[in-house]
Structures are given as C-alpha cells and as structure tokens.
Design a protein that fits this description.
Shape: globular
Radius of gyration: 21 Å
Distance between the termini: 30 Å
Order of helices and strands: HHHHHHHHHHHHHH
Strand content: under 5%
C-alpha cells in the first residue's frame, strides 16, 4: 500500500484537473465564436455557423468514440513509466500543438479547405484531451489507496478543476481581446502542459501484478448490463448537452444581448465559478444529511430554473439588464457546481458496485464511458445551437436564437432529471447486491 499523500503531493496530482478544464472550457467558449463571429462585428467568417456546428459535432463524436478504447488501453498498459504517465505527456503535447494552430484557418472566406482544416485540428485536439483525461481519472485509485484518501483527493481535483474554469474565464477573455485567439491558445496550452508535468511526478511508476484483465468487448458487455450506470450516463448526455450549449452561447449573449465587450465574457464566467466555489461546502454538508441522488435532482431542478431565467434577462421587471444577468449567473453557479460534485460521487458508487460484480477494478474504462456520454452531449450541443442561431437570429437586432438556446438547455436539464430517476443505488454500498457476476 502506498503511503498517505502529503498536501504537496495532493496539489501536484490535482494540477492536471486545472489544466484539462482550462483548455476544454477555452475551446468550448471561443471556438464557435472565432470561426463564426456575429455578422454585425465586421470580422470575417471562416465558415458558416451551421458548418462549424456540424464539424465541431463530428470532432466531439470522435472524442467520445475513442474514450473507451483509450481507457481500456490505459488499464492494460504496462511500461517502465507506469500505466498513465505516457498517455498524459503525449496528450498534453498534442493539445499544445493543436491549440496553436486551431485558430488560423487557411483562407479568410468560407471554403472546403477551411472545413477540412477545422475538422482535422478539432479531432486532434479532442484526441489529446482524451489521452490526458481518461487515464488521469483512472489513476486516482492508484495514487490514493484508501476510501478516505480518495474522497479527499477527489475534493481537491474538483477545486483545481474549478480554478481551471475560472482561469479560462479570466485569462482567456483578456488574452483573446488583447492579442487574439492564437495567443490565447498558446498560453492555455503551455499552462496545461505544465500541469501535467507536475502530476506525473506523483503517479506510480510500477504496477503490482494483477489477474488477467478482461478483453475490451467483455468489459463493454459487462458495463452495458449495469442499469444504474446506464441511467447515470443517459442523464449525463442530456445535462452535458445543456451545459455545452450554455458555454457556447455565452459570448453571443454577453456581446449581443448585454452589449458588453468580449473581455466581459470572462467576468460573467467568473461569477458562475465563484458561486460554484462558495456553494461547495454547502453541498458537502447536505450530502451528510440527505441522499446524493436526491440532492442531484435538486441541483438539476435549480439548474433548469436559472437557465430559464437567463432566457428572459432584460424582460424581468426589476433592475438593469446587467444586474439581472449577474443575479441569474450567480444563481446558476451553485446548482451547476452541485451537479458536478454529486455526479462524480454517484459514479464512484457505480464503480464500486462493478468491482463487486466483476471481481476486477476497471476505473479508467468506466470513466471513459462516462466521458463518452459527456462527449455525446458536447456533440449534440453544437447540432442544436447552430440551427437555433441560423433560423431565429443571433444579432443585436434579432437575438431570439440566443435566448432560445437557454430555453432548449432548460428542457434538456429537465429531461436529464427525469431519466436519472432510474438510479437507485445507495450512497455507500456495504455488501454485494448479489453473487452473480456481470460477466457470467
């Protein structure tokens, strides 16, 4: 058994969570806006908004599809550097390269060359993100070997992840506004690479021998027979779709509805993230008194309410439009933060149940399928945002499409809450549900 982690080791390990969230939030927030800026800004459109949305969806589908293969590959990999470190290093280098190139289309007008360039670069970016994210999530039980240590490390991963989102909100919008998207991509890529460099210092370099692992197909069959896992993943697809729509919509909402500068995008993102951080102790306290699955339903209903309020900012009876937006984003943050804290806690119970039912630890594979569900949500978001913009408008004079994105996100979150009703596991499993194995 590995010795308990020191605070320094905990911070080093959690650093990659900040890096992953930093670059993922940056791309989710700015890529659509960069290639298909609002028509009245005078900036050239490299691709139409419908084409960008479709190609971005294809890149995210690719990302979702490769996650399970990377998870299985990482679980069964053996090298002198351990199971996880080679994946993290290779993925972060690929991310840095793509973040430098992603924002520079070959031509200044919509063209087939621009479309191919966009598709190749986004697919490469999401490949790098999977190479880092999936093995990183699967490494937690190797670094923290007791239940208490795993809970503590998960908490710090979440805190560092929120710091990454906040860093993207503050730093990304400032660099984008002053020096452009290429500089923004380079800065974010270098920071993410540095965080991986910190984390690999505390990852185990050797793995104790284990029983022969399942093959990929057998692992997939076992996992897809796990009903609580399926309920959680289907709900995740819907909620992640809504979340990605909110991110992609934010620059348009801030610049065209609120009539603020691009730099103000980071300020409103910062409000959400700070509200998430402030509310985190409250969710931890509530989890000691109520079931996590009940709290998740509360967070989803609150998220739906705050999303619906954003759709009518400027039409509410009290306060200026800017004040209304601040209040609505401040309300969104605690419920969004509660969802992300609780969904991973529920996922941990699913993984523990699977270990009892299969007799094997397959953390990376489970988290890869979980991120597969999130990736499908990202893909669906671009397929929904682009048509709403195209059909209903995304200009200062006609911002109906922007407001309808919030309405669509509300509906998706409510559907996610309804689907999640099928999750029936307790917060802490104390005995195997039954003796029969999933793979038997």
């Amino acid at each position: 058994m590995r010795p308990a982690l020191t605070l320094r080791q905990t911070f080093l390990y959690s650093a990659t969570s900040a890096g992953i969230n930093l670059i993922n939030t940056t791309v989710s927030t700015w890529l659509l806006y960069c290639y298909a800026p609002p028509l009245n800004t005078g900036r050239p459109q490299a691709l139409s908004i419908v084409v960008v949305g479709t190609l971005l969806a294809l890149g995210r589908v690719w990302n979702a599809m490769i996650d399970p293969f990377i998870g299985h590959w990482s679980d069964v990999s053996r090298s002198r550097w351990g199971r996880r470190s080679p994946f993290l290093v290779a993925g972060s280098l690929l991310n840095l390269i793509t973040l430098l190139c992603l924002w520079t289309p070959p031509t200044s007008q919509p063209s087939l060359l621009n479309a191919l360039y966009f598709l190749v670069l986004t697919s490469a970016f999401y490949t790098g993100l999977s190479l880092v994210g999936v093995p990183y999530d699967g490494s937690l039980p190797e670094v923290a070997t007791t239940a208490a240590a795993q809970v503590n490390l998960s908490m710090w991963k979440n805190i560092f992840g929120l710091a990454g989102v906040l860093g993207s909100a503050v730093l990304g919008s400032v660099v984008y506004g002053r020096w452009g998207p290429v500089a923004m991509g380079g800065v974010m890529g270098v920071i993410a690479l540095a965080t991986v460099g910190l984390t690999v210092r505390v990852l185990p370099a050797s793995i104790p021998p284990t029983a022969a692992p399942m093959g990929f197909r057998q692992s997939l069959r076992c996992t897809l027979r796990n009903r609580p896992f399926l309920s959680l993943c289907c709900s995740t697809i819907l909620v992640e779709t809504a979340y990605a729509m909110l991110l992609a919509n934010l620059p348009y909402f801030v610049t065209l509805v609120l009539h603020e500068s691009e730099a103000a995008v980071g300020r409103f993102q910062g409000i959400v993230v700070l509200a998430m951080l402030v509310a985190a102790p409250g969710w931890n306290w509530l989890s000691r008194h109520y079931l996590n699955r009940q709290l998740l339903q509360v967070s989803l209903l609150g998220l739906a309410l705050s999303s619906s309020l954003l759709a009518v900012v400027g039409w509410l009876p009290h306060g200026s439009i800017g004040l209304q937006a601040i209040v609505c984003f401040g309300l969104l943050g605690p419920f969004l933060g509660g969802y992300f804290v609780l969904v991973y806690a529920l996922m941990a119970v699913v993984v523990e149940q699977d270990a009892w039912m299969t007799g094997q630890r397959r953390e990376a594979f489970h988290y890869s399928l979980f991120t597969f569900a999130a990736g499908l949500g990202l893909s669906l978001s671009t397929l929904l945002v682009s048509p709403l913009f195209s059909h209903y408008g995304y200009t200062s004079e006609q911002p109906t499409g922007i407001r309808l994105v919030f309405v669509a996100a509300t509906v998706l979150v409510l559907l996610g809450a309804w689907v999640f009703r099928g999750y029936r596991l307790s917060d802490a499993l104390t005995e195997p549900p039954r003796q029969k194995r999933w793979h038997e």
